[in-house]
Specification:
Layout lengths: L1 E7 L19 H16 L9 E4 L3 H14 L6 E2 L8 H9 L7 E6 L3 H9 L7 H6 L6 E6 L12 E7 L1 H4 L8
Parallel strand pairs: 1-4, 2-3, 2-4
Antiparallel strand pairs: 1-5, 5-6
Helix pairs in contact: 1-2, 3-4
Length: about 180
């Protein structure tokens, strides 16, 4: 059994005049949401989120999401940055997961949509009770905790996971929800 946690970067701003999408920073709500997800990990997410391995996109908004999560978690995640994650497809993300070190029992993957959502839908069977929430939308700063019924990361594939938690920032604090 392995545990894979997927975290989509927090809400970024389009108001900053950066030249590249890669360089877009978080907005204020995104910073608050990242910290709140970190608090959830610390308080309810399994003993302070003991990740054996953390892999993340190097995009600015992901780096700032990590900083916010670390603030809420009150500990460092020590991620390995992997440029393949930036705007990756589900197939590429699955290939990355299959390459995780076998000694890791619990891994965190931090990146972007639609790849993260598509990966979650690929590895989670249609009958999984929480899957419907992810099918509707995988919002920014949302955390998905998956239990994979596998012995090695190489065995990760279609339908191997059970979605244990699907935590959106708005589930933790209504002010972090959409601007309707």
């Amino acid at each position: 059994m392995k545990t894979l946690t997927l975290l989509r970067h927090a809400k970024s701003t389009w108001d900053d005049p950066v030249e590249r999408d890669f360089d877009r920073p978080l907005n204020g709500r995104g910073r608050r949401a990242a910290a709140r997800i970190g608090q959830w990990l610390r308080d309810e997410g399994g003993g302070g989120a003991p990740f054996d391995h953390v892999r993340a996109s190097p995009a600015v908004r992901v780096r700032q999401t990590i900083e916010g999560v670390e603030d809420g978690l009150r500990r460092r995640l020590d991620p390995m940055f992997d440029s393949r994650i930036y705007l990756a497809s589900a197939v590429t993300l699955l290939d990355i997961v299959q390459g995780f070190e076998e000694s890791a029992a619990s891994a965190l993957l931090i990146g972007h949509n639609p790849g993260l959502e598509d990966l979650l839908l690929l590895v989670t069977p249609d009958a999984d009770p929480l899957r419907g929430e992810a099918e509707i939308k995988y919002p920014t700063a949302t955390l998905a905790v998956l239990d994979l019924d596998i012995a090695t990361w190489r065995d990760a594939g279609a339908g191997c996971a059970h979605l244990r938690h699907f935590i959106r920032p708005r589930d933790l604090d209504a002010s972090l929800g959409p601007d309707d």
